[in-house]
């Protein structure tokens, strides 16, 4: 344990045990190691195994990985958290991990001084643990600064009855008090703050507490970059007087091209092994001709929507590569889903399907012209950093908020679901229009800004942790 001590100090990290959270936390920890910190990365056992399998193929990270029990029969990260019962199950399970985490921490503090605990807002008890052990907590927020701002504003949103929002409610209200935001309506408030979610989550009112927990952290590091959300970051710091720092995009340096100056193939530890055969299919297509379709690791579609999308993709006549996860449509087998895709493809070779793609490599492939996405925050950042515009179909969580910024603020994508047009018309309209090149120019500018900022990430983090950050 002695070797844990480093000249900058020791950090104990604990990510929310879900795919979209572990990878950014791991990349941040690697940056911390390069700054001279030592890190213990505490992780649910099933995720730990996957991480080690992935990392064993890569150079040493300088991080000590420590597993704690999942407390579930299935790997926690594969649980569909968009099902109400499952969500509560995952919440309770993460609560159970507190005792295991504290016992790891106790062992560490008996050997080495811990500089801070690095965890997420959604693992609320880590602040209590930090207080109990007298160690500062630094929060990593793995979503956008806008989503973070919503968390700070929950008490105000509730007081003004702008949340919870009834989904599909025609009576939209404008929201103009969120600093740095474009004009919002209640439809843009994250789905996770909907009346539906309230029903699922009896402790909804306790969300007000999140703001207090957030404000207690030594600082909040956000997986976003300043050029993307400058106004929101500035607004947050001015209104809440807290150190809120953009440290993103938390993506592999090889993907961003900051390692050796050029983008090169890279992978992230995934839920399932990536099927590389799609790369050979992509190699056979012309530049910019393929729509890449993926809904992340956890979101689900109804069978009706799956068929609607399959039909739209077929009829728009574009080539498409679709990640059809076995869990994408609850209650339907992978075989059934693949039959629907085949039936709706209108010419031989129009489509390629895989259960899990090497997404970073796919997005960097010259054949890929557009990303049909659920607007998960990792996918959004990856698309921007690959310079690929988006066709948005937000499904859950804060994906509608991300979509709002993609379509209306940054103008690097369009909504796929349009009241007046069907999917094939939206796709054809955008791919064949002037808008295509304008969006591509805009997304490439953001990509350059992201890469520029990511080169300064270690300095930004260093300044934030020593409280010298921009304020
Ligand atoms: C969840 C929420 O849905 C999202 O709204 C929130 O912002 C983060 O947590 P998830 O649904 O997994 O995340 O989506 P996303 O954030 O986009 O992350 C998916 C990750 O899986 C990405 O890093 C992507 O590269 C990777 N992926 C996805 C693959 O590697 N292969 C695939 O086939 C699909």
UniProtKB/TrEMBL annotation:
One family name in Pfam for this protein: UDPGT
GO molecular function: quercetin 3-O-glucosyltransferase activity; quercetin 7-O-glucosyltransferase activity
Record-given protein name: Glycosyltransferase
Organism annotation: Selaginella moellendorffii
Alphabetic keyword roster: Transferase
GO annotations of cellular component type: cytoplasm
Keyword flag Transferase: yes
InterPro entries on file: UDP_glucos_trans (IPR002213)
SUPFAM superfamilies: UDP-Glycosyltransferase/glycogen phosphorylase
Family: Belongs to the UDP-glycosyltransferase family.
Domain of life per record: Eukaryota
Phylogenetic placement of the source organism: Eukaryota, Viridiplantae, Streptophyta, Embryophyta, Tracheophyta
């Amino acid at each position: 344990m002695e070797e844990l001590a480093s000249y900058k100090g020791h950090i104990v990290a604990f990510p929310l045990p879900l795919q979209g959270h572990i990878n950014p936390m791991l990349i941040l920890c690697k940056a911390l190691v390069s700054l001279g910190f030592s890190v213990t990365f505490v992780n649910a056992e099933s995720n730990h195994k996957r991480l080690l399998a992935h990392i064993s193929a890569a150079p040493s990270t300088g991080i000590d990985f420590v597993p704690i029990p999942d407390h579930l029969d299935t790997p926690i990260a594969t649980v569909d958290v968009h099902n109400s019962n499952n969500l509560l199950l995952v919440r309770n399970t993460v609560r159970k991990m507190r005792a295991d985490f504290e016992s790891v921490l106790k062992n560490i503090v008996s050997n080495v001084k811990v500089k801070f605990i690095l965890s997420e807002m959604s693992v609320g008890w880590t602040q209590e643990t930090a207080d109990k052990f007298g160690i500062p907590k630094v929060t990593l927020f793995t979503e956008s600064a806008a989503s973070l701002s919503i968390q700070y504003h929950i008490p105000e949103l509730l007081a003004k009855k702008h949340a919870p929002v009834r989904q599909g409610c025609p009576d939209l209200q404008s929201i103009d008090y969120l600093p740095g935001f474009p004009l919002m309506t209640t439809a843009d408030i994250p789905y996770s703050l909907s009346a539906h979610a309230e029903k699922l989550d009896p402790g909804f009112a306790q969300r007000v507490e999140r703001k207090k927990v957030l404000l207690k952290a030594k600082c909040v590091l956000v997986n976003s970059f300043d050029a993307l959300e400058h106004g929101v970051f500035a607004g947050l710091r001015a209104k809440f007087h807290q150190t809120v720092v953009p440290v993103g995009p938390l993506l592999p340096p090889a993907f961003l091209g900051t390692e050796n100056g050029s983008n090169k193939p890279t992978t992230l530890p995934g839920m399932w092994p990536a099927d590389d055969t799609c790369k050979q299919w992509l190699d056979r297509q012309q530049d910019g001709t393929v729509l890449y379709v993926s809904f992340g690791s956890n979101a689900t579609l109804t069978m009706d929507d799956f068929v609607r999308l399959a039909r739209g993709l077929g009829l728009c006549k574009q080539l498409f590569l679709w990640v059809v996860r076995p869990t994408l449509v609850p209650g339907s087998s992978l075989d059934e889903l693949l039959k629907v895709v085949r039936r709706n493809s209108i010419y031989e070779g129009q489509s390629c399907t895989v259960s899990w793609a090497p997404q970073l490599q796919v997005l960097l492939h010259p054949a890929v012209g557009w990303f049909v996405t659920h607007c998960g925050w990792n996918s959004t950042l990856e698309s921007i950093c690959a310079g690929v515009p988006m066709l948005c179909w937000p499904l859950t969580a804060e994906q509608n908020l991300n979509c709002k910024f993609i379509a209306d603020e940054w103008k690097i994508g369009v909504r796929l679901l349009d009241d007046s047009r069907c999917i094939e018309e939206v796709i054809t309209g955008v791919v064949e229009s002037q808008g295509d090149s304008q969006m591509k120019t805009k997304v490439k500018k953001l990509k350059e800004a992201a890469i520029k900022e990511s080169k300064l990430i270690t300095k930004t983090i260093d300044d934030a942790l020593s409280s010298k950050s921009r304020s």
